[in-house]
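so im writing up the methods section and need the 3'5'-cyclic nucleotide phosphodiesterase, putative record in one place, dumping it here so i stop losing it
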Amino acid sequence: MVKDLMYSLVEIERFLLDHHAEESVSGAFRDVRDAVYSYQIKTVGLGAGRLQSTAASSKSSKCRARSPTESFAHTFLCGCLPQDNTSEDDAITTESCSSERKDCDVNHPLLPSPRPRRGWLIGPSRRNLFVNYDSVEEYEKLVSQLGNNWNMDLLALSNFKAFTQNGPIITVGRVLIHPVGERIHPDFNRLLAPIISMLQDVYLPNPYHNALHGACVAHMMAVLAKTLKLRDYVTPHEEFAYLIAALGHDAGHPGKTNAFLRSTQNPLALIYNDASILENYHASLICHIIRSQEDFFRLFTQQQWEAVRTRIIQLVLATDMMSHFKHINNVKERRLNGTLDYKNNPEDLWLLLVLCIKTADIGHNFLPWCEHLSWTKSLFEEFHMQGDEERLLSIPLLLFFDRTRSCDIADSQLGFFEGLTTPLIDELALVDANNVYFDRFIRENARANLEQWKKNSKRRLEDIVQDLEESDEVHRIPDATIA
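--- predicted struct ---
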């Protein structure tokens, strides 16, 4: 009975999240939920299989028959996430098994079926409340800033009708990759289109690790490579490698951490032997999707593909935060002993590109406060959803994942900034000590956000967000277009 009650709370919360319930409704539910959780109900004997919904497997029954391994993985990846209850009027959907698509033919044993195109919105623009989302001119103005303006209003862009119709990975991927694709082969961009679409489809509608996050990381990766002038020293194929790696770095992310997958003996943890589980999975998905498109794959020689695949794996695996300081120290040690030479040594260049994708992956911390707070809210909502399931499974909750301790989030962010983000961007800034752009925009945003978290110490995240939403403050964000 208690287990059913706890499970129902998780399902209700997912339903409200999926259907963008009004704040008054969500607030009333949170009061009830928190009252139940305050009793610290302890459950035992609830296996991971109980958490898996049969809805996903029934929806996917129209697709080709899956092997036992595929079915098990598909049930996990789709069943442990919010289910698709959106009507045709509420969301743009994709047909998983359309005869016009080959998504179900990708030979990867753990490839999730395409999902309805949801989970693309973090929230509205906080700096411009009067955006005309039907304006082609305003849309094209924002699109032109992709890969070229760290402070661009990506939240505004994500709410334009044209953006939601195409989706984040397709929109951003086209803009960033098109120029380099033209340099590689006349047919490159045309043949790449289904790959970008499939990458977008395998992103799941998580509160944070969704397709918009993937697109945002690719945009930031492009900005960093450009402003630090690292792009000047890569070949077109290498530029494609770091852009596609950034776009797909969280492809198929189930909204759970590596620690959760290990604790529940998830099949991904068994396949990858507990080592960078999700990162190995994301890199594998990217490469399998590319290999599945034979006409595109033929554009590469064997040597070119091996080089591209090597760099994709290198960059995506580096996003595992467990290896955070290893990658910082790889650069720091070479810099201190005077051997760092990224202009002439390709391996040094890629050590720096690793720091770029790591910076981009946690890049919302270096955005203006009004955007950073929106992304932080979504991140902790995803953490709390995992915490709810951990409570069901009697897994000890970490601080970040316990929604009853929201007042500790500000201080945890302080620790994250001071202990993890600052060493990363400080080291990356030394690539070009005279780079005014990096200091003026990226590091300045980080400093300002750190001060905001200090100012809001011990306050509940919900109250901090509410203050922002109710404020009449006009957020004047400096233009950060690269000259």
